[in-house]
Write a structure and sequence with these properties.
Order of helices and strands: HHHEEHEHEHEEEHEHEHEHEEH
Largest sheet: 5 strands, mixed
Strand order of the largest sheet: 4-3-5-12-6
Low-confidence stretches: none
Number of strands: 12
Oligomer: single chain
Helix content: 25-40%
Number of helices: 11
Structural class: alpha/beta
Distance between the termini: 47 Å
Shape: elongated
């Protein structure tokens, strides 16, 4: 790996890179930052040499970023916003004026719960702010933060290391769901009936035995899991289309109960709730824009 001496790097190159990402055209990027088009082209050549990558290629739509450019674009935008905040004396982040792009990691469960209301909030309060959502899970979320692939993750994750921060969003409990006209579901669901049913469960790793099965095993019980899927959003549709019963996070099924003919029951056994948190790297602690995003997400329990 080559060593980079930051003192030898012209950080104005990042300004040019950011403008090219935003405009997708060298001339418009030059106008955006007050340079000539040849100056932008010269800076782009220096950027290509610095990163060892074309970064942008010409296409009918203009300058199209390469995969590397797409990966680093939100990081560069965050760096520039932080530098601007320092130079302006720590002026507070103004969501109404910002054009910042945040990169967050969510599982499909967390995306279902958080994104609709988060996007509605951005529409009202931060129309220029954009989101890039990358799929994550309990096993890969913390490494994605360490690698800089995302700025923030939300979901259920292991205890983070000391160089990361964590904030509880809410405690999630479980609910049982079955098709509305399921012939084996009475008005209530007792344990014997529950164990006699055919079950669907979600496992990101594809394990046919999961959290609920561990709780049952502690009581010497076992359910009949006949289908295991790797995506939470498949569960409501499969339950609606079959005689399978699912025991999954309440917020996965509750919003869909009015749209699909599902019947929801409290589990006939005590299943401990789990924590849904937001986690970020300590390097973002003092970033005003990041603080604003975390504050918005911290109000999630008022939404659900």
């Amino acid at each position: 790996m080559k060593k980079i001496h930051i003192a030898n790097v012209d950080l104005n190159l990042l300004v040019v890179f950011d403008a090219l990402v935003a405009e997708g055209h060298a001339t418009r990027a030059a106008e955006r930052i007050g340079l000539t088009q040849p100056a932008v082209s010269h800076s782009l050549n220096r950027l290509r040499a610095l990163f060892g990558d074309p970064l942008f290629v010409r296409s009918p739509r203009g300058m199209t970023p390469t995969p590397l450019a797409q990966d680093i674009a939100p990081i560069v935008r965050s760096i520039l916003e932080q530098v601007e905040g320092v130079l302006l004396g720590g002026r507070a982040f103004d969501p109404t004026e910002s054009t910042r792009q945040f990169v967050v990691g969510l599982s499909d469960y967390a995306a279902l719960v958080l994104l609709p209301r988060l996007i509605a909030r951005l529409d009202r309060e931060a129309p220029g702010v954009s989101l890039v959502v990358r799929n994550t899970s309990r096993s890969v979320g913390l490494p994605m933060l360490d690698d800089g692939a995302v700025e923030l993750i939300a979901g259920n994750f292991p205890q983070p290391p000391t160089h990361m921060r964590e904030e509880l969003l809410y405690e999630e409990d479980f609910i049982c769901a079955g098709r509305g006209d399921h012939t084996d579901l009475a008005d209530s669901l007792d344990l014997d009936r529950y164990l006699s049913l055919r079950h669907l469960q979600v496992s990101m790793k594809g394990n046919p035995s999961g959290y609920v099965d561990a709780v049952l095993s502690e009581k010497g019980l076992k359910r009949n899991v006949v289908v295991t899927v790797g995506h939470f959003l498949m569960a409501p549709m499969l339950v609606d289309a079959s005689d399978l019963v699912a025991t999954e996070p309440r917020r996965l099924f509750a919003p869909l109960a009015g749209r699909l003919p599902l019947r929801l029951f409290p589990p006939p056994l005590d299943i401990p709730s789990f924590r849904v948190v937001q986690t970020w790297h300590a390097r973002h602690d003092a970033d005003p824009g990041h603080q604003w995003l975390r504050r918005v997400l911290s109000e999630v329990d008022q939404w659900v």
